[in-house]
Structures are given as structure tokens and as C-alpha cells.
Amino acid sequence: MNVHYESKYKKIKRQIKKLVFENAALCDEVAEVQTELCAAREERRYLVKRLLRHEGFENVGKEENSAEAGALSTQKLSQPQKKRGPKKRQRATSMGGAVEQERDRINLTEKKFDVDMYGKPKFPINLSNILLHSMGEIIPTNSNFHNEHWIYPVGYMITRVYAHPKEPQRKCVFTCKILNNAGVPQFQIIPDNDLDSVFFGESANVCHQGLLETLQRSLADVTKLPKRVQGEKFFGLGNTTVQSLLQLQDDFKQCANFKRFLSAAEWNFPEDKDPTICYEALQSIIAMSAYHTMPEVKDEPPDELFELN
Predict the structure, then answer these.
(1) Which residues contact 23 (CB under 8 A, 6 or more apart)?
(2) Would you say 165 and 133 are in contact if contact means Cβ atoms under 8 Å apart?
């Protein structure tokens, strides 16, 4: 009887030893896969940055500044020198052209785009995170198209890069428009090559919220998006260059309800780190969530288990 149980004991001991070796091999393999995943994530971020730079969604930097400086210098050289005249005439001309001087000042200090021979901007305008196609037209007589901090010009259109609502890890170009629907603004967010996933509503926040809810359903419970609805920011209306171009329109000062634009310090979160607006910030959250949901690699078994005879 003792011989029977002894043979069973030895058989079970051999199986346990075999399982211990298999578990150690699996631990090593999982560790190698995790290392390869980290390297793949870094390579993907690098490729995304190169792709965005190739498609024109990053600042050109020093080249833009040098080009603007050259354009300004040639413009100054081409302008004829004004002749000196009586003091009264100088006062009259300066008072009469105060508005034009103020516009020129805004244009020269904040200009990040090319202009034609009449001083009007050439579209599309690359503003790093958005591509501006049309500024639209301000409607000052209708209070639905402006409020205390925002102005919604009819015909305004931009494109920007963000995650596809059905495939969050795939990059997608969104077209954002503001239209006039019987005296009420209609905001639209249209994904490229996917007309079935158009988000529209009477406010920019409604469109942005619909996009975030669709993304959350696609991500399921693996990744939780922050509940930060910022429609005007997604539409690019918080961009300083867009706001400067709005100030240059003749009907800007006639908007009765409008007081001032929100400054960058008043935003809740920087745009380049906001996963509800920035594609790269969203991909970072998805990668971190996937990393935390991976099975934990346990420590290797103690050496005492390998000493079984």
C-alpha cells in the first residue's frame, strides 16, 4: 500500500516540477513581449509626429518667422515715403485712419499667414493644430451667433486631426463647420470618409459631446475619457490667430452681447495635453490603460521548488 502511494507522490512531484519550469518560461516570454510593446509605442509616436509634419499640422518654426520678416521688410521698402505737411493735415489724416492703423498693428504683431496684394489673408491657413479654410461672416444683429465670450461666424470652416469615433486608435481628419439654419447656428463635425458619423447641433458643445460619447462606446470600459466638453476649443475658436481675424471684420464691434475672448490662462487644460481634443494625448491614455490591464508578471518561483527529487 505504501509503495502505491509513494509512486503517486513521485508522479505528482514530477508534474509540479514540470509546471514550475513552464511557468518560469512563460514569465520570461511575457517580459520580452512587454519590452517589445514599449519599443513599438515609442516608434508609433515618432511616426505619428513625422506624418503630422508631412501633412502640415505642425509649426514650421524658424522658417515661418524668417519668411514673415522678409515679407515685412520688402513691404516697407515698396511703400513710398510720405511727404511732410502742415500739422493740421497730419492730425486729420491720423484721426481719420486710426482704425486702419489699429488693424495694421494687429496684423503685424499676430500674423501667422500670407496675405494677398489687398492685405487679405490667403486660405487655407496652417495654424499648427488646425487648418483654417474660411473665416465666415459675423452676424451682429442676431444674438444667437454670439455670446459673452464667443462669436460664431456663418460659413466658418476648419479641419483638424483627431481619433476616428469608431476606431479610436486610427487617425482621422475632421471638418468643423458653422452654418445658418433659419436664424439659428448649426454646428457640424464631419469625419473624413464617414458621412454616417456626422455630429451636428445648435451648439459646439453638443457636437463635441456626441463625438466623445461615441469614442467612449468604442473604447468600452478599457479607457475612461475625461468628461471635458469644450466645443468651441475643438472648433478652433479659441485660437489667437482666429480671434485676431475676427477682430478685423467690420461687424466685430457691433456684437452687443460680446465682451471679450477667454485667455489661454482661463482654460481648464492645455490643448496639447487634452485627450478630448489632442490625438496624441488620447493615444497616450489608451496606451497607459492597455498597459495597466495587462496581466501582472509574477516573480519567479523560489529555488526550493527546484530541489524536489
Answers:
(1) 301
(2) no
For residues 61 and 142, give the distance between their C-alpha atoms in angstroms, rounded to a whole number.
39
| Pair type for strands 184-191 and 171-181 | antiparallel
| Contact indicator for 267, 238 with CB cutoff of 8 Å | yes
Find the Cα–Cα–Cα–Cα dihedral 29, 34, 38, 44, rounded to 10°: 80
Q: Rounded to whole angstroms, how far apart are CA atoms 154 and 160?
A: 19
- Taking the CA atoms of 280, 224, 286 and 288 in sequence, report the sign of the dihedral they define: positive
Can you give the pLDDT at residue 62?
43
For 45, 133, 161, the CA distances from 50, given in Å and listed in that order, are 9, 23, 14
pLDDT of residue 220: 82
Q: What is the grid cell recorded at 168?
A: 479610436
Where the chain has pLDDT below 70, the residues are: 1, 52, 55-112, 268, 290-309
H or E, element range at 171: strand 171-181
* H or E element that contains 188: strand 184-191
Closest CA to 195 of 175, 216, 179, 212: 175
State the Cα–Cα distance between residues 213 and 195, nearest whole angstrom.
Answer: 17
Eight-class DSSP state of 265: G
Closest CA to 305 of 95, 97, 20, 79: 20
Q: How many residues does the chain have?
A: 309
H or E segment at 175?
strand 171-181
pLDDT at position 269 is 75
